[in-house]
Design a protein that fits this description.
The complex is a heterodimer of chains A (170) and B (557). Chain A is α+β, with helices and mostly antiparallel strands and 170 residues long. Chain A has helices spanning 22-32, 61-73, 105-115, 135-146, and strands at 8-17, 39-44, 50-59, 77-82, 88-99, 118-123, 126-133, 150-155, 159-162. The two termini of chain A are 34 Å apart. Chain B is built from 23 helices and 18 strands. The chains are: A alpha+beta (170), B alpha/beta (557). Chain A binds chain B through residues 21, 24-25, 28, 32, 66, 69-70, 72-75, 77-78, and chain B through 117-118, 121-122, 125-126, 146, 179-180, 182, 302-304, 308. The structure holds thiamine diphosphate.
Amino acid sequence: MLKKAREQEQTISILVNNQPGVLSRVGGVFGRHGYNIKSLCVAETTNPDVSRITLTSESDPDFTEKIKKQLDKLVDIINVSDVSGQSYIQRELMLIGVTVKEGAYAEILRAIELFGCRIVTMTPDYFILELTGQPDETAAFLKFFQSFGVEEINRTGSIAIERTKPQRRI
Amino acid sequence: METIGADIVIQVLREEGVDVIFGYPGANTLPIHDRLMNSEVRHYLMRHEQAAAHAADGYARATGKVGVCIATSGPGATNLVTGIATAFMDSTPMVALTAQVSTSLLGQDAFQETDIIGITLPITKHSYQVHDVNNLAATLRQAFELAKTGRPGPVLVDLPRDILSSKCPPAEENAAPALKTNYKTEEDREQLEMIAKTLNQSERPILIIGGGVKLSNAFRLVRELIEKAKIPFVTTMMGIGSVDSVNGYNLGLIGTHGNELANRMVHQCDFILAIGTRFSDRSTALIEEFAPLAKIAQLDIDPTSIGKSIKINLPYVGDIRDALTALLPLIDAKEKSDWLLRIQSERDAINGKVTDTGCGQAGDFIRMVQEAMPVETTVTADVGLNQIWTVRTWQARSPRSLITSGGMGTMGFSLPAAIGAKIGSPERAVVAITGDGGFYMNIQELATISYYNLPIKIVVINNGHLGMIRQIQDLFYNARFNTIELGSKVDFVAVARGFGIPGSRIAVDKYPKAGIEAMVKADGPYLLEAVVDPENYVYPIIPPGCSNIEMMYDRLD
Ligand SMILES: Cc1ncc(C[n+]2csc(CCOP(=O)(O)OP(=O)(O)O)c2C)c(N)n1
């Protein structure tokens, strides 16, 4: 059941028991329902027994609601929440490799300054740039540099954190 | 003897009240099979692991207890798969124990190593692989707890051989870790009041009874509701028998192979209270046209079953028994209504229009079998025409008396399920009804029945074809019959005799009584082969893609 209506980017945060096999259980729920994961990030939380999976997808919100209920049934899942909203801060880390042609130097260096990104390493004709930002910033960054020739991209996908002190401890 | 992991397994089985398991050994199960010798747990040796899973399933459905099956690693474990999936689809509480290669060999493609956890991921409620003998008891307890709580289902525990044979202290009591309790919902009083109010105000209400009523043991409450509100009911295939089928408020089975009255009245009703059903496609047919005039309230313990396929106006997540207990006092006692009169006149009209049950001579024959058997009989139905004939003609007089694979539609289920049902409820007579196609699929279980001398009555309805598929080819593929003929060369009576089971053959249209009587009189198992015309189909049926009221009465419709 691939839903196409009213698709928008959703970010879901899932707290899970930090155990082997849990990711395949979570992935199975998405796969079985034909729900495409756009990005996925997994890391330990303040409690080493608990991991947080943050994932984004483009989907219909009703469909996401159904998936959340399905996930909630998994024994190893502690909590599922939608972190797309205003009360969460979202960030993504992106690395891109850009070809630098003669004559483009000045423009590129200026863009680097404007975007507030970092040159990780460089050769005369190839820069690796690093940017951390909100999803719309990383998107604009990528779009801009594509006009110069982006050879490679790697990105973490969104991670998110509550703006205020969390109500409960993990 | 020193305590080893296998003893812990048996200790927990005993704690959980398990006295019977169904299984098949292999080198890796041997620590358990060895220690079973000194235990009170009886192990039934089936002739195939698939049958062990179906027997555990049949046992669970007949008794309401958790069914347990055990198989060895590799092929033993993979043979369980169809049985586990069948239990999963019908929410049977079940614990499947699989042996595994030793932990030191895991991931090395060792002899008879298979990733059974991975294979069964989508068809189990949960699964565990035990890596430390000190966690064994807690894991097993948790497996039982999970299998039977919330929406029940199969839980698999994979047991590496070294864990089973390693020495350990006896399991401490109460070493079960706290389970995630996502099923325990608080009573939503307001929503129950809304449901009651809508029901009280409705003019044409209907109750849909699903399998959840059996799983939650809510029979008495549902009956009280029916009698108090004078509310007619229909059932899904899994709900049959939850309330005595001969109850006057019963309109029958809904869905693609359901009763005309049930489907028609659901189409006309203005309110549905659905209890423990997920509105599967078999029940609703064309979803867009299902119950177009009705507001729908749904009670279910599984939040994902609510509104899965259809919009629900009044959802309620919770245990059915708790919900009904709270709901009953809020429901107005009603007198006979215009709605019931309308139903009666529809019923008369349908009875006048069609002369038989729509199941032809096969249906009449099944009715004769039931009449000849004691009232306290459990029937298992296989899959195909024989299933539909059975569920439409057998009067299920008590909740656990009709057992069949609904969600999965697994051919070959009825014979091993009957073994489990008989062992679980030895005081009841058990009849296994099957088509010839489904019979072949677990025919080896005749050996189990014969070995343990289980007095199961086996009725093979032989039409020489995969009857249900034949009907589909006949009606929807221009009668281009292909790959459905099983032929008539096999002598089932001789086959049964070869397994040590007496039997006889009759034709359903020529004095079937004699054969039925011989079967009923037999002390032990008996096989009755009932020959039926391959054109004995089921009518009416709902053609694919049609709504529940677009019924087809014969091939000319
Ligand atoms: C294991 C399995 N394989 C295939 C099917 C598809 N199928 C459904 S009904 C049916 C025909 C069953 O034939 P038979 O057992 O002879 O029963 P009948 O319909 O003739 O009563 C088949 C092949 C199934 N349900 N289960």
